[in-house]
Amino acid sequence: MNIGLHHFIVLSALLFAIGFFGVLLRKNTLVIYMCLELMLVATTLALVAFSRFNGTVDGNVFVFFILTVAAAEVAVGLAIIVALFRRRQTVQVEELNALKN
Amino acid sequence: MTPVQLAILVLLLPLGSAAVIALFLRRQGTLASILSTAACAGLAAVALQLVFSNVRFADSFSWLQVGDLDITLGIKFDDLAALMLAIVAIVGLCVHVFSLGYMSHDGAKARYFGGLSIFMFSMLGIVFADNLFMMFIFWELVGFSSWLLINHFCDKQSAADASKKAFITNRVGDFGFLLGIVWCYHAFGTVNIGELGALAEAKFAAGETMIAGIPLLLFCGAVGKSAQLPLHVWLPDAMEGPTPVSALIHAATMVAAGIYMLCRLEPLFVAAPAALDVVMWIGVVTAVYAAFCAITQSDIKKVLAYSTLSQLGYMVAAFGLGRLPETQTVEGVTQTYLLSAGAGIAMFHLMTHAFFKALLFLGSGSVIHGCHHEQNIFKMGGLASRMKFTFVTFTLGVLAIIGFPMLSGFFSKDAILLLAFEKNTLVFGLLAFTAVLTSFYMIRMWKLVFLGKPRSDEAAHAHEGGFSMTLPLLVLAVLAVVGGYSFILDNAVFSNVFNDVPDSHNHHHAHNVVFATSIGVMALGSLVAYFFYKNDSVDTLAAKSPAAFSGLSFLKAFPDDLYNYYVAKIQQRFALFVNFLEQIFLAGLIVRGIAGVVGLFGMGARALHVGNLHAYVYWFLIGAVLVWGFASGLF
């Protein structure tokens, strides 16, 4: 079986969909955060595939940037979640509604 | 010090006193009264030195520049200003000293003396002002201080009402004044008094007639401040203030500011004969009308208030009579000069009136103080033997105002009558008739207050006030006697003002007629009043001829009733109607309408704020879809 571009794209779309529905449906902030990262990785995968099949490095350059930013974002985001847990003793989304009530 | 610095010192002394009293001495009445009087004494000393050292100057600096408009603050110190300065300083000092005694038991002395100081500052500002904008600023300031001092007994409803009435009535006049100033600037490009005078003088010399609107609008200011018909209604009510205030502000100085302003702008009026005629007739009508009103008053201060109105009418009429041609033969050459007789005589009468009317008001203050604040002349009587000093000085004041020969009023009133005789016989007749009424109501009041037997306990136990109250009476009595000689003595100090006053008592046919008329009307009015009025506790006129009495009362009450009707029935209803429109359209449709739309939008937007992270993800998703759809041209 010859592996073509569409295989990568379908995989990427699947990963993105899993991430997306995870964000929509899961209640745990940490899991939601992991799903967000999953969506990011899905797009990265698509970019690498485009880059590979086009024979250019444009996509690869994007990926470097995305990875850098994602690393920084993870550092900040995880810190926030840890701080949140220390203060509230919970990371369940439905209990984190201080802005409304 | 240079004269300019001295003049600024004169201006700043009372301002400093007022500021110190307002900031630090509000609870120390005695200290405040001493400070205010000391400041007034200081300014009077400097002012008199300035006046009699014969320096005259003009100086100004730019204060506010907006585009082409350059508003300056400046001092124009000519003979006219010097005369006014002397009057304000002397009468002001007398009133300050008198107040020390009269107000000694008052609970709010600090406010009172602070008010006097701020008044002195504002009045001197008018005297010095070299342009109309600056004059207008101080014009409003005297209005404010007048309001403050009328309202001194602010616990009394009548005093509070009177002060509001004075303020609002003056606003009406001042609006005209302001329009006049703006028009003046529009038409001539300057509001400097000297430049305006030169412009108008040039037009007059070229035989051109100026547009009457400008002087008439400027005259509106004088109508309000000098309480001429139809804006005279505030002055009698202003008698609610303390008596020394009535003497200073509502008799001698502030109400004379209108006359002073007219005289400052004399060329402007002379160049517009139509305006001058209006001024003259308003003055004549006010003089006659107020004299009639004074006859039925029972409050000693109200009699004097209407008398003040009448005398102010005299001055305005004198001003309105305008210039007088006079032929002089010098070394065989006959030349005709135009004397600024109207302005000169008006200022002359202003001066003598300031002295004798301040004397009369302070005398009435002494009487009121002696009778424990009884003001009704029908409850007085027999004060001649109980208050001898007040009786003598008050009598001198009465004689001066009715024009008794050789007292000050005699000279100034005859000068007015002479000018009227030369210019307009009808005006002459009316003014002579007013003089009859003047002596009639003054002798009536004098007799009821001082002669006969006391008609109340207060009058029976009347006593003379202290030294601080008798001394100002003495000073003013001397001035009321000799004030009239100031121009006869060929005095160089005020020469530019008094050189234009024709001498009413030298040998000439007209002068004899005027002299005879003057003596005749004085004797007629006095004798009729003296023999007609009995020392009784009811008005003899009301007892003998109720119809005449009620007619005169109606005459007095008519303008007030008219204004009350206008305000309550016309203006108030119009205001209600406008308010209705405003509520419907402006507040209702425009303001509330827009606010309602925004509020509705806010309510909708608030529904999106649910506090659930997942809901926000959906909103984000919808937003992304919308942006995508918009970008791809779906909508």
Write the layout of secondary structure elements.
The complex is a heterodimer of chains A (101) and B (635).
Chain A: H1 5-25, H2 29-54, H3 58-88
Helix pairs in contact in A: 1-2, 2-3
Chain B: H1 3-24, H2 29-52, E1 57-66, E2 69-77, H3 79-102, H4 109-128, H5 132-150, H6 157-188, H7 193-205, H8 213-225, H9 234-237, H10 243-252, H11 254-264, H12 266-270, H13 273-294, H14 300-321, E3 324-330, E4 333-339, H15 341-370, H16 383-386, H17 388-402, H18 408-423, H19 425-450, H20 457-460, H21 467-482, H22 495-498, H23 509-532, H24 540-544, H25 546-608, H26 613-631
Antiparallel strand pairs in B: 1-2, 3-4
Helix pairs in contact in B: 1-2, 1-4, 2-3, 2-4, 3-4, 3-10, 3-15, 3-21, 4-5, 5-6, 6-8, 8-11, 8-13, 10-15, 11-14, 11-15, 13-14, 13-19, 13-25, 14-15, 14-18, 14-19, 15-17, 15-18, 15-21, 17-19, 17-21, 18-19, 18-23, 19-23
Compact overview of the structure:
The complex is a heterodimer of chains A (about 100) and B (about 625). Chain A has helices spanning about 5-25, 30-55, 60-90.
Order of helices and strands of chain B: HHEEHHHHHHHHHHHHEEHHHHHHHHHHHH
The multimeric state of the shown protein is heterodimer
Find the biggest chain interface.
A-B, 11 and 8 residues
Largest sheet of chain A: none
**Percentage of residues in DSSP E strands of chain B:** 5-15%
Give the low-pLDDT segments of chain A.
none
- Inertia-based shape of chain B: globular
Radius of gyration of chain B over alpha carbons? Answer: 29 Å
Helix-strand makeup class of chain A = mainly alpha
**In whole angstroms, how far apart are the ends of chain A?**
57 Å
Tally of individual helices of chain B: 26
What kind of sheet is the major sheet of chain B?
2 strands, antiparallel
* DSSP strand content of chain A: under 5%
Q: What is the average of the pLDDT values of chain B?
A: 85
Number of strands of chain B: 4
Total number of β-strand segments of chain A?
A: 0
* Computed structural class of chain B: mainly alpha
Shape of chain A: elongated
Poorly predicted spans of chain B: none
Count of DSSP-assigned helices of chain A: 3
Q: Average pLDDT value of chain A? A: 89
